[in-house]
Write a structure and sequence with these properties.
about 350 residues, alpha/beta, Rossmann fold, 3-stranded antiparallel β-sheet, 11 helices
């Protein structure tokens, strides 16, 4: 017998907690788009779980009227893994930041991705430690002057998308906090994917790193600095769509002007479904100002889902050996008594 689910709205996902982010923080927009997306998924509200670590973004579960865990620094993927394996029926979202996920949490992030759990990981990247008041993070650019690098950072920054693709993520995407329609589309696609969805969101910390992504958000510059990825279509950008990305004979991307013998057919065509991750990795390495930065779905492929494989294995063992006896297990093998 089918059961009609109640029609939900964004307000149904808003908790009664006071939102305590700085005014004009990019987190507000990400929260708003999430509340828009969830009612469209046809999933009961009690089936959602939000898991976070530590950082400004990690307040997210308080502001969603769903189940949630505000866990410990860097361990959100581990907590989410336990939730998903024990309750595969739940839709699990991991909310994390560039510091939380890529420093102390790097190991947990990598292994959650490679296992391909059916969870959604949203990484807010503001290239700074905001909650602890402005130290440089794993994604801060070379030369960044912060409270912990007053003379400029000499650390080579991590690329979140490169880490995800290198860990064999089956869904990889990027958007930016103020591009509302695009961010909504990316979150919808992430929710619909079977397997680990990894989404990097460029998020402005207007207090400690204001304008870090202005090149990708300002109306008068973003057309020349951003290229939107569309499956099966060439990489074209520019205010008049007069430029494109071509792959040279050395398999390196290069910016070209359309016309004078160069047409869209000569450009790189995007294939988000390519099993081989080389194209996605190439795109992830395109960085401003040398290249326009890609936005959209980098990769969307299928692979066995971890919790389903675990469940299948358990069922097979139980069918062969029975349900087992915990007491017998405790007393099996080498045992001894301490007087």
């Amino acid at each position: 017998m089918s059961v009609d689910l109640p029609v939900l709205s964004p307000k149904d996902f808003a908790s009664d907690q006071e939102i305590r982010w700085c005014p004009r923080c990019g987190d507000y927009s990400i929260l708003a788009q999430m509340k828009k997306v969830l009612p469209t998924l046809g999933i009961p509200r009690e089936k959602f779980v939000f898991v976070s670590g530590i950082g400004c973004s990690s307040r997210f579960p308080y502001y969603m009227d769903t189940y949630g865990f505000h866990s410990i620094h860097g361990r959100a993927p581990a907590v989410a893994s336990g939730v998903k394996v024990s309750r595969p029926d739940l839709q699990v979202w991991v909310i994390t930041g560039d510091g939380d996920a890529l420093s102390i949490g790097g190991n947990h992030l990598m292994h959650a991705i490679r296992r391909n759990l059916n969870i959604n990981i949203i990484l807010f990247n503001n290239q700074i430690y905001g909650l602890t008041k402005g130290q440089y993070s794993p994604t801060s650019p070379l030369g960044a002057r912060t409270k912990s690098t007053p003379y400029g950072s000499v650390d080579n920054p991590l690329s979140p998308l490169s880490v995800a693709i290198g860990s064999e993520a089956t869904f990889v995407a990027r958007s930016v906090d103020v591009d509302i329609k695009h961010l909504t589309m990316v979150l919808e696609r992430a929710a619909q994917h079977r397997g680990t969805s990894f989404v990097e969101v460029y998020q402005d910390c207007n207090v400690f790193n204001s304008g870090a992504f202005s090149y990708a958000t300002k109306k008068d510059t973003k057309a020349d600095n951003v290229v939107y990825l569309e499956h099966g279509k060439p990489l074209v950008f520019g205010k008049n769509r007069e430029k494109g990305i071509r792959v040279s004979e050395m398999s390196r991307p290069e910016v070209v002007e359309l016309g004078n013998g160069i047409s869209e057919d000569d450009l790189l065509f995007h294939d988000e479904q390519a099993v081989e991750p080389s194209l996605a990795f190439l795109l992830a390495r395109m960085r401003y100002p040398e290249f326009p930065e890609p936005m959209g779905i980098f990769r969307d492929v299928e692979r066995p889902v971890y919790e389903e494989e675990v469940s299948r294995q358990l069922e097979a063992v139980m069918e062969q050996k029975g349900e087992g006896d915990l007491e017998a297990l405790f007393n099996s093998g080498d045992t001894w008594t301490v007087e």
